[in-house]
Write a structure and sequence with these properties.
alpha+beta; Homing Intron 3 (I-Ppo) Encoded Endonuclease, Chain A; 2 domains; two-stranded antiparallel ribbon; 6 helices; about 15% strand; elongated
Length: about 150
């Protein structure tokens, strides 16, 4: 359980958030309900495209994807909400999943420097698959084919 989930659970209940916000499950967009005083306006997204969308409620700033999870499932996420396709602004419920921090890191496609991370699964396959003829495998596909053919030392 991460610190965000602990804070979320003690800040707002599902009923409180549901009273203020409405979720469009097709787009993942959050809309203010009429009871919020902002009547029917969309919740704003940040101007910085690399930042997560935040929604201010009662003096607190909530990550939009965590609010989407709450409104879609009825409970706060237990761990970290992962954007499956890697787009931080795609908050459709079908694109979100509750995962551990380690699982979320495996799904991350880029380092902060912008370089592609190697796929941890393919590097494991390269270490395991060593063809008997001594030729090295250079990608996950070749390693997997060698393993399946039984041509592994």
């Amino acid at each position: 359980m991460n610190l965000n989930s602990i804070k979320d659970r003690y800040r707002m209940s599902f009923d409180e958030v549901d009273r203020l916000l409405r979720l469009d499950p097709e787009t993942g967009q959050l809309w203010w309900r009429h009871t919020s005083g902002k009547s029917g306006r969309a919740c704003r997204t940040p101007s910085d495209s690399s930042a997560y969308s935040k929604v201010p409620i009662g003096g607190w700033s909530f990550a939009a994807h965590r609010l989407v999870w709450l409104l879609h499932t009825g409970s706060w996420p237990q761990f970290v909400v992962d954007h499956i396709n890697g787009d931080r602004h795609d908050n459709r419920p079908s694109n979100l999943r509750d995962v551990t921090h380690a699982e979320n890191q495996r799904n991350q496609s880029y380092h902060r420097a912008g370089k592609r991370k190697p796929d941890y699964r393919s590097s494991q396959l390269k270490l395991v698959a060593k063809p008997r003829d001594g030729a090295l495998t250079f990608n996950a596909f070749e390693a997997e084919m060698a393993r399946r053919s039984g041509n592994v030392a």
